[in-house]
Prior knowledge:
Blueprint: H1 3-7, E1 9-10, H2 12-17, E2 21-27, E3 38-40, E4 44-53, E5 59-72, E6 79-93, H3 102-110, E7 117-120, E8 125-126, H4 127-138, H5 164-170
Parallel strand pairs: 6-7
Antiparallel strand pairs: 1-8, 2-4, 3-5, 4-5, 5-6
Amino acid sequence: MSEINKNWLRDVFALATNSGELVGTLPINGLTRLHGDLTDATGELNYRVLGSINSHKHSMLHIEINGSLNMVCQRCLESVVQSVKVNNMLQLVASDAELDSEEAELEAILAGDTSPEKIVGSKDFDLHGLLEDEVILGLPMVVAHEVCDEVLPMAAGQKTSPFDALVKLKK
Length: 171
């Protein structure tokens, strides 16, 4: 395990029990799962993680992440600045057995239950991985400009022929 990864390991239960707070910056070049969607991996996002114990004696993490990413527009394939605003509450549990089943979680969502999502915590929890997950989950399904300057021919409904390139070469 590299030194950078060790710096991201935290005892999240102690953070919650002590009402701890972690504030810092998340380097964008460290968000490896987003690299294929980024046009520029420089810069950083600001994060804040607050630990607490709620009224039901559950360990909680409040995650806030703010900033912007330079991403690929899915309509025109040019760069677009996508703002990142994450504000999420998570409940820490000690084991997989304490997690809700997928069916129970889906039923709760459909019923309008706004209870925090449960995640398995640990004494050496990968905080970087959690923050990266939250950034990814906070992005829209399709990143795009509100209005693109250039639209790809297929996006505009125009038909292209594979022979169009040959016609241009012939001229």
